[in-house]
Amino acid sequence: MSAAAPAQAAAAEPPAADARAGGAAADEAAASHAPRRKVFVSGCYDIIHGGHVEFFTQAKALGDHLTVSVASEAVLAHHKAGRRSSMPTAHKVALLSSLRMVDAVVVGEDEERGLDFKSHFLRVRPQLLVATEDDKYGAVKRELCSQVGAEYYVLPKTLGYAPVSTTSILQNIRTPSLCPLRVDFGGGWLDVPKHARPGAFVVNCAVSPLVSLARWPYRIGGGLGGSAAHALLEGRDALEAELAAGVGWQDPAVLRETGLCVWRSGPRPELEFKTGGGFLAGRMALMWTGAPHVTAEKTDVTRDYDQVERAGALARAAALPGQEPSAALEAMAAAVDASYGVQLGEGMEPLPGHGALARKYCGGGWGGYALYLFGSEAARAEFLAAVSETHAVEPFLGHVQ
């Protein structure tokens, strides 16, 4: 090859480069005029989490343009039993718009259940309406798709990590780190739905010291509402957990409410009134009886429910505000003694008196802790000093922390 040949080849390179650039530009121009495959998704997106991000990513991969519709606050209130949004709609729009796979965000305002986004959908006319496999409104969404020739596409919920829901996130936020346990005075068992009696009462009191998952100074199976407290501290629905176990609602109800509470007997908790229970301060103590008990195993034991109801009525009368503390204490001791009489009638072992005004087994009884009610702080102090495995407890009225 002559010396001129490389020079000629080099001279030829720029035109070749120009041709390639022109080809890329032509491809981009052609692509810009090609029809886009539009994808549409909708939801509440009340708290945006990793599952949403993965869903948007998978949905966008099905097309070229992704529109996300977020339900307005008015839609949430109308269709979700008055549910309030966890954050303002403008904040949701800003967050969703910042995601790289999201091309457009709209706010669903339509009133038709499950189709709050309908107006936007008919305007955008996407090729795909994408939903998750647990979509409750699949039927009406398929019908909507048929109006514009779109496909209703279901994505499985696949994540490389443990899934969460908005409900579970909110529950974790609300989960306390500390909560009280409880003692019951009268009407126990009338919180179990199948044993409820109209016009009857259940009376109990949240007590300190508070417990946590890391600090639990009591024995398990003590009749102090421990299973409800544990569920509450783990972020579970303590009320549903207790009802599912076949026991009553009084434990989760009073642990959340706190204070000395009077509840109406029935299938679900209904608070009649509550006080701080100040007359009980310095007067209550617990004694471990030597063996745990499981309340669920005792729900159908034969017992005198007329006497249970009477004990609840006595405890309600003792809890009424405006009484002299000493009179209220004597009245509550009568209620506790009536409850103890029911327990003895079931066949439980008698408890030693230890100089108390009254005593009874906590919760379902047949073991666990026993509640002792004393006439003075000095009498309680003497008991605590003389008897092993005892605890001083106080009425607790405040916020579950």
Describe the overall structure:
The structure is a single chain. The chain is α/β, with parallel strands linked by helices. The protein has two domains: 36-169, HUPs (Rossmann fold), CATH 3.40.50; 175-395, Alpha-Beta Plaits (2-Layer Sandwich). The chain is 38% helix and 19% strand. It has helices spanning 4-33, 50-60, 73-79, 89-97, 118-124, 138-148, 166-174, 226-233, 238-244, 250-257, 305-319, 325-346, 377-386, and strands at residues 38-43, 65-71, 104-108, 128-132, 151-155, 179-186, 201-211, 260-264, 270-275, 284-288, 358-361, 369-373, 390-395. Strands 6, 7, 8, 9, 10, 11, 12 and 13 form an eight-stranded antiparallel sheet that branches. Strand 4, helix 6 and strand 5 (151-155) form a beta-alpha-beta unit. Helix 8 (226-233) packs across helix 9 (238-244). It is elongated and about 90 Å long. Residues 1-31 have low confidence and may be disordered.
Structural class call reads alpha/beta
Unreliable spans are 1-31
Distance between the ends: 89 Å
H/E topology pattern: HEHEHHEHEHEHEEHHHEEEHHEEHE
CATH topology of the largest domain: Alpha-Beta Plaits
Jot down its keywords.
401 residues, alpha/beta, Rossmann fold, Alpha-Beta Plaits, 2 domains, 8-stranded antiparallel sheet, 5-stranded parallel sheet, 13 helices, disordered N terminus
What is this structure's SSE topology?
Elements: H1 4-33, E1 38-43, H2 50-60, E2 65-71, H3 73-79, H4 89-97, E3 104-108, H5 118-124, E4 128-132, H6 138-148, E5 151-155, H7 166-174, E6 179-186, E7 201-211, H8 226-233, H9 238-244, H10 250-257, E8 260-264, E9 270-275, E10 284-288, H11 305-319, H12 325-346, E11 358-361, E12 369-373, H13 377-386, E13 390-395
Parallel strand pairs: 1-2, 1-4, 2-3, 4-5
Antiparallel strand pairs: 6-7, 7-8, 7-13, 8-9, 10-12, 10-13, 11-12
Helix pairs in contact: 8-9, 11-12
